[in-house]
Specification:
The structure is a single chain. The chain is built from seven helices and ten strands. Helix 1 (50-67) crosses helix 2 (72-90). Helices cover 33% and strands 23% of the residues. With 283 residues, it is of the alpha+beta class. It has helices spanning 50-67, 72-90, 141-159, 170-180, 224-227, 234-243, 246-258; strands spanning 4-12, 22-26, 30-36, 104-111, 115-121, 125-129, 136-139, 203-208, 214-218, 275-282.
Amino acid sequence: MIRFELIDSLSIPGDPDKPNDDAFGVLETAAVVLDGATSLCEPLMPGKSDAAWLAQFGARRLLAHINDGDTPRNAVRHAMEEAEQSFTALRRRAPAAIYEMPVASMMLIAASEAGFEALWFGDCAALVKRPGEPVTILGDTLAKRELEAARVARLAAKHGLSPAAGHNRPEYLNALRRARNYANTEKGGWVFGPDPRAADHVAAKAAAAPEGTLVLLATDSFLALISDYRRYDAAALFTAATSLGLEKLGEELREIESGDAYGTRYPRFKTSDDATALLVRVA
């Protein structure tokens, strides 16, 4: 059985005055990042952010189940069942619509005899660099980020707003709520959350991982360095992550975004979003 060694980690909020809705965790046998989707209503759970609650809860429970010997798929199902139980017990009221449910994207890798299994929801991703081979990408984030940017640009043009005017503006919020109402359906796609039915639809792929393989798990906002801002390709991002470190890449990410605060060059709903990345080595 392989094991993972943590090389570096980064998790920075999009707004220092608001909760970070991302979460991550690492064991010798597994690693995970979760990206809580920005809430589109007042919190239903105790605390300031339902998205942060879900991401933190999910990271803890996924790794706990794998540590207890669950298969990765069972860990996902059991963590989602527990999220449903906790959400039902602690919420202030039942959701009035699907968009009020907390949901998250996820990338989970779990060790196996020959490598690891990757399981994911939404637009988190894992970049894999095996010794002597090119970088491969697990997940759907790059294509989804391009679609999101085009969607933001259309909405901004329709309403005469700057793209990064803020997701909570009525012109954007109504559209976001309509889209979120399709979460965990065939039309809207499957996400981690208090709806265990989605566990049947988690994407999965087995990956070979010889000793020395590096894996970069990241949320879509960190990978905007590739997808949105075109500052790196996958290979160059790996080189920068190992030579400069994730903190420097986080600083570069924020410099790009502050230089385009209104989203006119790079259309997006917010100037900056929470960004998380983990770099692990296979031993």
